[in-house]
Sequence to fold (410 residues):
Amino acid sequence: MEVLNHSLWLVLSYQSLGFFIYTLYLYLQHKDTGRLIFSFFLLSFSFSSFFIHTQLFDHASGFFLYYPLAFCFGLTLVPLFYLHFKSLLTKDFEIRSRDILHFIPSISMVVFLMPFWVLITINLPHYLNSVYGIFLMKGIPGQPTWMLEILVKSTVALQLLGYSIKAVQVYRNHRRQLHAPPCKELRDYYSGIKTFAAGFAAMMVLLIFHRFIHMSGGSLSSTLFVITLLIINIGLAFYGIHFDDNYLYNCQQSPGLTSILQNPDQPDQPKVDDPCEKDGKYQSSCMCKSLKDELVKKLLALMSEDEPFTDSKLKLEDVADMLGTNTKYLSQLINEHFEKNFHAFLNDYRCAKVIKLFRDPNYSNYSIEGIAETCGFNSRSTFVASFKRYSGKLPSAYRNSMRKTLKKKS
Fold:
């Protein structure tokens, strides 16, 4: 049974390493920050589980030198997952310099353990007791690092609690920012995020108590424990790899989810003779059909003539001011008439402009990123996701295909 447990821990480590390589490959294709963060989370989990397993199964004394690395990597798991969680809810999420503060516990642990590795490297292990005596880091191999392990696990538990509260706040804030009720796809997306977070929390709780389970539960409990970790890890990797960090802002509102006005010819429904007849979803709105038609014409003219969408900082309020209306009416108009939200509406115009510039000889020497920026995109991940949704192809594939077509014609 111990051989089986040993093998399962190795599978857990190598499985996470494989997921890391695949996620990193996806990042290199699409350059979205959220996927990069998740790849580092998988790498950190791979190293943590590997070094834990070296300590659990009494490897050669040389491996004891590397076991403390489990503490260093373990302290990065919660912050990395939180940043990835945040990227799933934040449009054009980017890592900022202040985000390094999330990793102060891990960096502090590396600094704290540096004398340990230096003393062992220069063959002066007898000084370990004077440096780490209170943490029982004497003898190689020797006493287990109980005090240090308790300190690290307590820190991880506090991280899990604190970041869970922060994650709930981020989730609620972004739900409030939606201009319309979420469509079915968006509700499924939110459900996936909550399942994703719950799975991670369960994994961290198991890791915090892994030594207690291993020491007191017997071989069968240890086997069930690591199998549970394997299953949760597969689930996390599946969600993390398939989540699209731009999906939240490109989700189109499905007409089937809106309240459809009953047929006015039905006997139990009053006949509406007023030309300002309203759709069911916006029955409380004062915007009548004639006003909608006028706003649609003005909006289309504004987009085609002035091209305000080329400003990457353009907001709903800005467009409303240009049209002489308010944000509530404009948001309703875009949702009803174009069946998409404001961000998706702008990005479609930007993608059309990108295609136009792809055909323009004056832009033949421009990079794809340069053209995207000219058209109003300020994030590569948003551009790639929007363009693929709009055209069905990645920007590079579309441009190459268009160039081949133009060459054949010439």
Notes: The radius of gyration is 28 Å. The first helix runs from residue 2 to 30.
